[in-house]
Queue: 4 jobs
Job 1
Amino acid sequence: MATGDLIPASGYTMGVANGQLGLVSLTDAHANLDKNEFLGPTNNTAGTGVNTVSDVADVKFVVGTPASADISNMNSMTQGYSHKKFIESFPISANDRISFLGTAAVSRSRSAALLGAAVGGAGSFPVDAGTNYKLSVSFDSVRRDATHGTNTNSDTIYPYATTPASWTSIGITTDAERTDWIIQNLVYTTNVNSKYLKNSLPSGNKPVIAFALDLDGGGNGVAISAISAGTSIDFMVRNGQTLSYTADQAFVDTLTKLVADTAVTNSTEIGVVDLTAAAQAHDHLLLVALDEDRAVVEDREESVAVRLNVGPNEALYNSDSLNVDVIEVILGLNDGLTLSTMFKKEAKQHDWSPQWMGLTTNFIDTPNYFVESASYNTFIINHQTAQIVREGFTEEQQRVSMICVPSTNGVGEATTISGLNAVATPWLNSMPNITVDTDAAGTNLFV
């Protein structure tokens, strides 16, 4: 938490650094705290302890931006589209009626589909020679692609594996080898449509990636248990180049859900598809939806999660087992994608109103401080303020201030949470009209 003064007595550096939170006094409260000075754990009336509403009646939260370090070049034009000197909440008064909601982040998973004999619980993977095995993979909520898209928010690809007229002609003799051949070809023909390959090889533009799985493990692949955010997973060879996928937390959480809800286990391995190599032990196919890209300049379309709809053709769907198990997307709680969308629709339009006049010439993207792949613990302060309006009438105005702290597995960044509980919790808990619902323990409000 920031300390000292928000507004510098001289110079052009604000008293709050980029990304740093502070709780600011809005009144000349007492000898140890002036207007625009940050509340701290030891600057109450006696100068020895925390501030409560009896010490400071009106406050606001602020957070620094990249511009806070030097505001010397700020003018009315840059304020219209660039970083503010700081971001501030609505004023919060001791007389406001407050409800405080504190929620820890819940993990987010992507839409996924698992294909294989174990999905149905019985039977074997169909491995007939001279057969066209094909999938129908459609995407709900995709962005409309001006070059290759359709006029709807759904699109479809058809990955396929056409088996040879004779398996022995290509040196394959067992059902396990035949299953592996079909799985690898389905993965390959899915991924040549995937936008994930765009940075390495010519590719498609579809928000999906496919993997070949060895359900029992024990091979040369990467075990589910060994995958965490940041893990690089080799998954396919194309034109002699080995391609890798870097797992993010949403992918890890998708795997966790697969382990909980399907035949996939922590020992299951993601293997490398190589159509030029000898047969391997792949027996299942996994398709995972990817997030859509953002526009290059100012992007006003809402961010949405892609949903997969996957179905086998008649040859791939046999009488012994249902070969597709779809895992629904879970947006989680307080994920960056959802918060970014809310920010663009609400707070961003207030803070950068000159860019949100509905004019076609406004194309510059104003700042968005959310990382869409991250998670945040979120703290919402709803406060009702009485305002005197015309002719002496009093009007109740509803205001909402939201604090979002980066979170890992539901635990907020330690230094920020510790500072909030040391400075903001005592002040908020001392309010006479406050109701609290928080995931934090004890008297703390922030987690």
Job 2
Amino acid sequence: MTMRVDSDAPRGEKGQVVFWAIFRNRQGAQTGLAIHRAYKSDPLFFTLTQSNTELTTVMGGRSWSWHVVGITKVALIRYKELDFRHVARSRITRAHLIPRFFTTKKLLAESKPFSINEFFSIWSDADKTVICGPGENTREFTADYLEIDNDDYRLFNSRTIGWRFRVDVEGAFLRSLYQQHFG
């Protein structure tokens, strides 16, 4: 058995192949989802919390993961205070609109793994995030936020840790957004 590894392509490209844990035999038949299989084989050892950590680790850090769809006013004001630059330890974070744990629980609930298309549909629908200011990223995110048109994933691309912030792209975008909402 070989593991098929795809590039950093967003969902919809290259047949939506899960690059990390869909094993395929030489004929291309799906033989299982590794994390699903591990969880189902021994949920007391490979717990839901462990499975959540593994899925987040493997699926995170791709340009299309942790898809930013909004920003809170508190975060936008904080960026204004930082002259629209991203500064380490600024306590600006991203919060999932649907807690990641809920997504993992849904993906592992069935006795058999979801198909590739179903997996990506569930994952991408639940992978939407909002940029939050200090103290807003709580267990179940409930803060009001300004929607961002980012369906093409051009802004705030995910990195292994954190996200991409370019002063001339994201900074300029936030400066304009601030002007629109706060003058």
Job 3
Amino acid sequence: MTRVKVLSDFDGVWTNQGPEAAHVLEHFVARAAALTHVEPPAAQEQFQAWLKLLRQEPQQHGWAPDGKDPGRLTAFLDEDPLLCSSSLGRFLSLPSAPKAARAYRDAILAAGFANTMEFTNRCFLEATEAFSRGTVSPVVPRAKAAFQALVEAGAEVVIVSNSSSEKISRLLAPLGLPLVESASESGKMLRVCL
């Protein structure tokens, strides 16, 4: 019998994004503030004001992972709470960004980042890794039951994520699911096999 493959992201599908997204945004703003020598509370206030502005047109802001094409978005701002920092990072790079935003962009570039999205992605990885090592697991309570139901229905679950395989394995290990890591031309994949 041919098994159906279910391709799944990890963050936001198998994790509770709210607290993690807040942590990612806080980390992103703190790092940006440090580069521009702006006090963190003032930076938080400024970035929150910009985020409020961006949320008025969510289809114009979101995740542009490589930062090379400012007109291309992979996901819109209102589709995922983890996209707040990504949307803000992209906003900093826009030619129409206000002077204060350009100051952050210039500081990010002066710090050696190729573009604001490289900085944003680095902040995302640092923050999600730190969050995943916290005292409360971000994995949703029914994750094990959901994995088991999919496998019992004949599916092979393949996790495709920009999160590291190590992070995903560490977070899913307490569930007792047999995880198989496999390499492909595009990188590592995790499979949940029961």
Job 4
Amino acid sequence: MSSVTPRANYRVLEKFSFLAVARIFLEILQAAFLIYLARKSTLAYGNLMLALGIGTILSVITDFGLNQLLVLRLNAHDKRKTGIVSNITTLKSALFALGWLGTAVFVHWQGYDPVLKRAVLVMGIGFGFQALANTFFVVLQVNDRQGMEAAIRAVGAFFGFGFGILALFLDAPLWVVSFFKVIDGLVCCVPAALAAIRVAPSGFGPLRLAGMAWDRQGNGRIRLYYGCPDSE
């Protein structure tokens, strides 16, 4: 006989529905924005898609599989979770800074026109904020706050794509339109960070990103650690 109760099934469906509705809302706004952009200028549409592609690569570099590590540490019942969110956020920020600088070098090397260069770099900042927001969204997911996550994502999409559509309507240059991603990421990042601090305060402890420690078994080996030296 299954141990899963109808109440548990309902809660799973409820959490899924929150995120599904937010995703549908985001996709509708994104479709409206991209269709409007394509009708305004096919060249601008192509350049924006290029900027989005480069930004996606930068986002992958920034995340670097750290969200999976965060899930494992947040589910731990010892001091391995202490300060882990701060650690992951700091590490992601460093990876983003390096990736963004690499992107700046790349677009200069490719000889893109100035408007496209600025669009790519502005879009990259937005993807950086989004990568940081994903860290806090993981905290909310682990603590069963999918409804809060969905609301934050929906608000971010509304303000971000709303700005983008308004900028297109006003015939703003592409690099100004690209700020839609910055607004989306920032509106998601700040409330998500505040919510994560409230639901998981222990995750925002002192920073100890990496270092070396003697093996606890006393065999003289030096090992790398992440977070607390006793956490591995």
